Amino acid sequence: MYRPGVNIIPIHGKTPRIHETAFVAPGSTIIGDVEIGAGSSIWYNCVVRADVFKIRIGERTNVQDGSVLHCDPPRPGDEEGSPLIIGDDVLVGHMAMVHGCTILDRGFVGLGAIAMNKSVIGHDAMLAAGAMLTEGKVMEDRTLWAGRPAKPMRELTEAAIAGMKMGVAHYSENAKAHAIAVFECGLD
Hints:
- By secondary structure, the chain is an alpha/beta fold.
- Helices cover 15% and strands 33% of the residues.
- The longest helix has 28 residues, at 158-185.
- The chain is globular and about 45 Å long.
- It starts with 6 loop residues before the first strand and ends with a helix.
- 39% of the residues are buried.
- Pfam families: Hexapep.
- This is Gamma carbonic anhydrase family protein.
- It comes from Erythrobacter ani.
């Protein structure tokens, strides 16, 4: 599928696989062993670089403007490596950096937050804006972590979880509008 203004770069025999219903905004670069699921969106000027290992992005997940996604390969002493695995219905805020971690379904990464190798963001859990989840830390489901380094703050309320679900729905609909706008602009 043609995606105007998007850099899609095969490397090491691996070509990004992007579902036909996913929106990838102009200015984004998708490299190597990447899979992006149905209804997901990669917003303006994101870099998704799987040149050394794999990146998997589930369905209806959004990665907002300027975010950087990367991973680390298997190596001696770390045969599993640090792939980047992002589940379904995940929100990744603007200018976030997620590197070799796992974000479970409905997880949330706040604006400018960092999640490092082998860390895990639980189901319905939120890493606050500007927080840094250090290597190997595991956030429990339905919790809020904040700070540098991030530490558990509290359990999330039903209202907070509902707000995250609304955010997923908003980005899903907004991506459709942006896809039409990009097409109508005739970007090449």
